[in-house]
Amino acid sequence: MQNLPFKLNKKFSFSSFKFSSLKNPKKIQEYQNRVWDVCKQIYKGGLVEFGEGNVSHRVFKEDLEKNSIEQIFITPTHNDYSTIQQNDIVHVDFNGKLLSDSRKPSSELPLHLGIYKSRPKVNCIIHTHSPFASMLAVSGMDLPCIIEEMALFLGSGVKCSKFASAGSTELPKEALKAMGNINSCILKNHGVLVAYKDTKYAVKAALLIEKMSKIYIGAKQLGKVDILDLSQLKSLTQLFYDSISTTNN
Ligand SMILES: [Zn+2]
């Protein structure tokens, strides 16, 4: 680092000064762009509105400085998806320490960090308040496996968690319990959470859960729902566990 153009004093803190803790500082924009791109896709898909939900991405180990604590990039608090810019995406470490002079991170940071710490294979987390899945959330209902695509991309139906307050450290615990052996869950009286290895499948899962929730609620209105038998879909669930699952099974 070059000489600083000012004297350090007690009021100054590096947490308010923009510096890189990645091997290659140019990678910061790459991660911000990944999160921003997911924001645009879930907004376009009608899964989030102003101030709702959040998106994050883990920094890959190869991009971290040696002995550096793990880090993520996450959407800011009071996020407006219609106007968000790449440099609004916040860089924090696993202790929640701000690593950029950008905005404050989402208040759901503990939810994201709790999932990343428990599931090393997770690289992208999306949390939405998408309307049809949220109907199941307020009813405390699971989304059963009703169309084969669910077995391949979700691994099974999606369970609804027990209630825990937004922003609490209990929320990731309840989410992980409901996720079980798959990568997603419905958050009781709240919304949806998906935790995948990459952004592509995370977006796919978030959109699929909303679409399947809509179909399930519609079919219930018709008066009859035939739930698929997972034992007949073993080739699809095996593909999920072989390549998409973020559990160690
Ligand atoms: Zn939320």
What is the strand and helix layout of this fold?
Blueprint: H1 27-44, E1 54-58, E2 71-74, E3 90-93, H2 109-118, E4 124-128, H3 131-139, H4 148-153, H5 170-179, E5 184-187, E6 191-196, H6 199-222, H7 234-244
Antiparallel strand pairs: 1-2, 1-4, 2-3, 4-6, 5-6
This protein binds zinc ion.
Zinc ion binds at residues 53, 108, 127, 129, 166, 190-191.
Task: From the structure above, extract its key features.
249 residues, L-fuculose-1-phosphate Aldolase, 6-stranded antiparallel beta sheet, 7 helices, disordered N terminus, Aldolase_class_II_sugar_metab
Short description:
InterPro entries: Aldolase_class_II_sugar_metab, Aldolase_II/adducin_N, Aldolase_II/adducin_N_sf. With 249 residues, this protein is an alpha+beta fold. Helix content is 35%, strand content 11%.
Question: Could you explain how this protein is built, in words?
Answer:
The protein is α+β, with helices and mostly antiparallel strands and 249 residues long. The chain has one domain (21-244): 3-Layer(aba) Sandwich (L-fuculose-1-phosphate Aldolase). The chain contains 7 helices and 6 strands; from the N terminus they run αβββαβαααββαα. It has helices at 27-44, 109-118, 131-139, 148-153, 170-179, 199-222, 234-244; strands at 54-58, 71-74, 90-93, 124-128, 184-187, 191-196. Strands 3-2-1-4-6-5 form a 6-stranded antiparallel beta sheet, with helices on both faces. Helix 1 packs parallel to helix 6. It starts with 26 loop residues before the first helix and ends in a 5-residue tail after the last helix. 40% of the residues are buried. The model is unreliable at 1-18 (pLDDT under 50). It binds zinc ion. The site of zinc ion has 7 residues, from loops. Keywords: Lyase, Metal-binding. This is Fuculose phosphate aldolase. One of its GO terms (cellular component) is cytosol. One of its GO terms (molecular function) is metal ion binding.
